[in-house]
TrEMBL record:
Gene Ontology BP terms: carbohydrate metabolic process
Cross-referenced Pfam families: adh_short_C2
KW Oxidoreductase (keyword) present: yes
GO molecular function, one term: oxidoreductase activity, acting on the CH-OH group of donors, NAD or NADP as acceptor
Domain of life, source organism: Bacteria
Protein name: Gluconate 5-dehydrogenase
Keywords: Oxidoreductase
Amino acid sequence: MTRLFDLTGKTAVAIGGNSVLGSSIAHGLAEHGASIAIVGRNLDKANEVVKEIESNGGKAKAFQADVSSKEAIVQVADEIEKWSGGWDILLNAPGKNSSTPFFDLDMEEWDDIMDVNLKGIVLTTQIFAKRMIEQERKGSIINISSVSSTTPLSKVFTYSVSKAGLNSATQFLAREFAPHGIRVNAIIPGFFPAEQNKKILSPERIESIMNHTPMNRFGTPDELQGAAVWLASENASSFVTGALIRVDGGFGSMTI
């Protein structure tokens, strides 16, 4: 059974791997044998994640890049390729949120969130997947979506729209890359309090979330590791692509 989830000899690029959810997933991949390239705008945070992985016996290196800049992504891809020779797993986990009401939303904020949550995914996948194909590497791309992608949530208009676009991109690219042996899937997390959403979690909103979550609690970052390791493993999920995997405590199953 352990063979199914053995990632020994694999390299994973974790875009947004310095975030709360991204770093937890990176830890899970490293614990199953993968070498991890932690990519983030904040290099200090990325180095902290690397130290934690290394303290647990894993192999990792920090890299700095802004996912909204094609030049920065090309440069970091070059740096990672020199470090590892290539990669087999791409984790797209950057995220930006805002609670600005719709009628107060200006296009500068819209563009800022879209640049990270959707444009950034397109850029990183263009660059990293193309090199996987050129190197004839089969592999796995894992996008981090949100429950707001399928059931738009109040107060997070732009975020919800960006994650709905991410779901569509995931399924389109699953079809595009399947002939090359590259699988593309998305994880749809429920409510995992992190930097970008803590500021809008008022007591009233928390009560509303719990009323819509059968398990009646928030998720913890480590609870995303299992789905990510499964999707990363060619042995365990070789026939899974274009899937939107919910890890949401039942949130998506609720109606009234």
